[in-house]
Design a protein that fits this description.
The complex is a heterodimer. Chain A is built from no helices and twelve strands. Chain A is an all-beta fold. The model of chain B has no long low-confidence stretch (mean pLDDT about 95). The chains are: A mainly beta, B mainly beta.
Chain lengths: ~120, ~120
């Protein structure tokens, strides 16, 4: 079955520092991978998605992620953190194993940004 | 317009009450979803509708009853809920086309409290 693992339930960075949120996937078939962000008491917002068209995916708000098949990873990065980036981030996978309509979420990573 | 709307934003109900949550989208999406999210956890899929037909029920108790009256609307009818059903209920929608996985667009959620 397809699944994702997010390493680190909390990540703390200073404003202006590099953001790196880790996601590793498990899949026997090419997966579809997504990153979502959730601000307090809000729904989820799509940051970016990987659908095999390109391994480096650029998303909104300056975020990007690189699909690395050899490492089964899809880490999320942003060169310079802003205070407004503080939120919960979820990596998710779907595809043939889970069912194309099912998103399987990781446990989430809370990003804390200090001034 | 990439907006999914949900009403009400907050709902408090007793265990003997009957209430309904409403979700609406006008993106032409033919797949719609209900998720339940407990605090500090990822969303859990409850139901999926594809072309107004229930296609996935994740073994949800019968006190939750979904309905899809047309391609833009999704309801979740609630009856005889338990305090442990208190959560954020998220609606989402996406394109649907057989063996492809598309990003889901989430609404802001309904915060449900069962007393």
């Amino acid at each position: 079955a397809q699944s994702v693992t997010q390493l680190g339930s909390h990540v703390s960075v200073s404003e202006g520092a590099l953001v790196l949120l880790r996601c590793n996937y498990s899949s026997s078939v090419p997966p579809y991978l997504f990153w979502y962000v959730q601000y307090p008491n809000q729904g989820l917002q799509l940051l970016l998605k990987y659908t095999s068209a390109a391994t480096l995916v650029k998303g909104i708000n300056g975020f990007e992620a690189e699909f690395k098949k050899s490492e089964t990873s899809f880490h999320l990065t942003k060169p310079s953190a802003h205070m407004s980036d503080a939120a919960e981030y979820f990596c998710a996978v779907s595809g043939k194993d889970t069912g194309f309509q099912k998103l399987v979420f990781g446990t989430g990573t809370r990003l804390l940004v200090s001034p | 317009d990439t907006e999914v709307t949900q009403t009400p934003k907050h709902l408090v109900m007793g265990m003997t009450n009957k209430k309904s949550l409403k979700c609406e989208q006008h993106m032409g999406h033919r797949a719609m979803y209900w998720y339940k999210q407990k605090a500090k956890k990822p969303p859990e899929l409850m139901f999926v509708y594809s072309y107004e037909k229930l296609s996935i029920n994740e073994s949800v108790p019968s006190r939750f009853s979904p309905e899809c009256p047309n391609s833009s609307l999704l309801n979740l009818h609630l009856h005889a809920l338990q305090p442990e059903d208190s959560a954020l209920y998220l609606c989402a929608s996406s394109l649907f086309q057989g063996r492809n996985s598309y990003e889901q667009y989430f609404g802001p959620g309904t915060r449900l409290t069962v007393t």
